[in-house]
Design goal:
- This protein is α+β, with helices and mostly antiparallel strands.
- Helix content is about 20%, strand content about 30%.
- Strands 6-5-4-3-2-11-10-7 form an eight-stranded parallel sheet, sandwiched between helices. Strands 21, 22, 23, 24, 25, 26, 27 and 28 form an eight-stranded antiparallel sheet that branches. Strands 12, 15, 16, 17, 18 and 20 form a six-stranded antiparallel sheet that branches.
- Strand 10, helix 10 and strand 11 form a beta-alpha-beta unit.
- The two termini are about 50 Å apart.
- Bound molecules: beta-L-fucopyranose (FUL).
- The site of beta-L-fucopyranose has 7 residues, from loops.
Length: about 625
């Protein structure tokens, strides 16, 4: 798919947003929503489909997903790190840019920031002379890849975090990143910890000032995350929405918004008319979904056997990229700095499957025949591969049909539809696709929104020489920019994730203390599909493992349930010989990022031999009383 040549437009159009006047009727809101447009940055970004993520930092060396800010830079030493190898891996996978975590929530900087001691300059890596942002930026330049940087707003190490002064500190760091390493394509302002409930601090972020400074230094930079250009799709599983609007409603009055109020990223109907009616402003705000190839974002050896399968990656591609979103696959270098070979191979193979799919567009050069209400019907506009040459219907005409006469009979299993978002915004609300088979039209797919890109993956390949697209409803009028047909190869179904392995040859009973619960068997039956649910009701709520005999163990595995917030967040683990005297905890900790990425968690314990083990719940996500657990196991592995 060719990128829109920005230079051919001569100017770089900024986006268009619209205020919703008080008392606006649904018709007025619909009309206003069709006037909203993406900026040139967003158009470029939406065309890119995917950017690669790289997470390496303190957590790589401590086995955590979120650190504490108290880690010592002395543990950071990825001595075999080769940034070119990382960048080449993404490039081979067909990805055009890399997002490097320059600073994660623990505050450790992988470049030698002048504003804190908590950096690579105080680590043994490259004898304290290393600069990972520089190495990655040079590798990106060499391979023609876009450099993107993640500067976590939440900083657990910096003492000014929670005060006005932190804005200064944060802007200084941003200035370092935007002035020393060449063009930065995207800045990532992660939302985690910017809320008081999570970080324990009410940080008065001056978002507008932060964003304006970034743009002053680099006018082309995209602001993603807790920021106005690109939003979070609402999960970290690489899952998109079947109905995905890039036109979104917000309650903020500025276009430089950081934290959004009254905006729930997890809702399925974001951008629907019902949702827009409760909002004050309409903005172009496309989504993106992250996808760690492993369970978490950072490398943990225990996850070596549970890398996402090829079919999972391909499904995620269609769920996000195929549904008007973008996908960000993540690689996790190990403590040596190398990307584990299996992870690299998996990503490259996934990229090959997608690239091969796109090599032949069976609709390229086909003839399009308008039926009902269309304007600008240049015959090749819909099948020239570009979404920016398009047909549209007259205002008020929200139904229309187009027939696509392929050059020859072809077999395909993916149909790509694109609206011309640059010139018409997003409009289509419902459509169906038919193929001419055995002398008749047969419906092969249907859907709601299209937006920049909607890919319909058919369950079985279709052989036809004619397609028909019926637009059944739209906001004000229909616009269509491109139709393509592809053939996706069969992707083997596989699932490598292992069920939790409990202690062998030792009977273990789990009992509850200060918790009321149902379906105890579901907690330990080895089946992730059956849930235990319970309610915290007493002081020091805990799960107690009683072993039939004293036995060695070195960890606890915990697979959270499916309730959005019903997860354990902070814990302490105790061991005892008699189940009465518990002493000091073996460990205390936090399941970092469990709310947004509720995958199996692992508590590492010093190898211990006792008969009783207690997992005390110190805090749940959002302090909820109700929790749900798929599996809980004491392990020795
Ligand atoms: C989240 C963070 O909390 C995770 O650790 C990770 O960096 C992910 C990309 O964003 O919000």
């Amino acid at each position: 798919m060719p990128f829109a040549a920005l230079s051919s437009q001569e100017t770089k159009p900024e986006g268009i947003s619209r205020a919703i006047p008080e008392g606006a009727t649904p018709e007025e809101i619909v009309r206003l929503s069709t006037q909203v447009r993406p900026s040139y940055r967003q158009i470029d970004y939406q065309q890119r489909e995917m950017l690669g993520f790289i997470h390496i930092g303190m957590n790589t060396f401590t086995g955590q997903e979120w650190g504490t800010g108290k880690e010592s830079p002395a543990i950071f030493n990825p001595d075999e790190l080769d940034a070119e190898e990382w960048v080449r891996t993404f490039k081979e996978a067909g990805i055009t840019g890399v997002i490097l975590v320059a600073k994660h929530h623990d505050g450790f900087c992988v470049w030698p920031s002048r504003y804190t001691e908590h950096t690579v300059a105080h680590s043994p890596w490259r004898s304290g002379k290393g600069d990972l942002v520089k190495e990655v930026s040079e590798a990106c330049r060499k391979y023609g890849m876009k450099l993107c940087l993640y500067l976590s707003p939440w900083d657990m190490h910096e003492s000014t975090y929670g005060t006005d002064a932190y804005n200064e500190f944060y802007i200084h760091q941003l200035e370092e990143l935007l002035t020393n390493y060449g063009p930065v394509y995207l800045l990532w302002f992660d939302g985690a910890g910017t809320q008081e409930e999570v970080s324990g601090k009410n940080m008065p972020f001056q978002w507008e000032r932060i964003f304006r400074r970034a743009r002053e230094l680099q006018p082309d930079v995209l602001l993603s995350g807790n920021a106005p250009d690109v939003r979070w799709v609402g999960n970290e599983k690489g899952k998109g929405r079947a109905t995905e609007w890039s036109v979104q409603g917000i309650n903020e009055t500025t276009d430089w918004f950081g934290s959004l109020k009254d905006y729930d990223h997890s809702l399925q109907d974001l951008g629907s008319l019902a949702d827009l009616q409760s909002k004050k402003r309409l903005v172009w705000y496309p989504s993106r979904g992250g996808l760690p190839l492993r369970k978490g974002w950072f490398y943990h050896p225990a996850d070596d056997l549970s890398i996402k399968s090829l079919s999972y990656l391909v499904d995620s591609y269609f769920s996000t990229v195929g549904q008007n979103s973008n996908l960000l696959p993540n690689l996790s270098p190990d403590p040596s700095g190398k990307i584990p070979q299996k992870d690299a191979e998996r990503l490259i193979e996934f990229g090959r499957i997608i690239r091969d799919m796109k090599t032949t567009d069976y609709a390229k050069g086909a003839t399009a025949i308008p039926i009902g209400g269309w304007e600008n019907c240049r015959t090749d506009a819909l099948t020239d591969g570009s979404p920016f040459t398009s047909w549209n219907t007259v205002e008020g005409q929200v139904q229309a049909t187009v027939e696509i006469q392929l050059k020859e009979e072809s077999t395909f299993n993916v149909v790509l539809l694109q609206e011309n978002i640059r010139d018409f915004g997003q409009r289509v609300e419902r459509f169906a696709v038919d193929a001419w088979m055995e002398g008749d039209w047969k419906m092969i797919a249907e859907g709601t929104t299209i937006g920049f890109r909607r890919m319909l993956r058919l369950s079985t390949p279709v052989t036809a020489n004619k397609l028909r697209i019926r637009f059944l409803n739209a906001r004000l009028s229909v616009s269509l920019g491109n139709v393509s047909c592809f053939r996706l190869e069969d992707v083997p179904e596989e699932n490598e994730s292992l069920p939790a392995i409990a202690l062998r040859d030792v009977g273990i009973r789990v009992s509850l203390q200060g918790i009321r619960g149902k379906h105890m068997r579901n907690l330990t039956d080895g089946d992730l599909a059956t849930m235990w649910s319970g309610r915290l009701c007493g002081e020091k709520p805990a799960f107690v493992f009683t072993l039939s005999q004293k036995a060695p163990f070195n960890g606890i595995r915990y697979s959270p349930g499916s309730l959005p917030k019903g997860h354990v967040e902070r814990y302490a683990v105790y061991a005892s010989d008699d189940g009465k005297v518990w002493g000091e905890p073996l460990v205390t900790g936090r399941f970092g990022n469990i709310e947004n990425n509720p995958v199996e968690q692992r508590i590492y314990l010093p190898r211990t031999e006792k008969r009783f083990v207690k997992l005390e719940v110190l805090k749940t996500v959002a302090d909820t009383k109700v929790i749900e657990i798929a599996e809980l196991a004491l392990v020795n592995d």
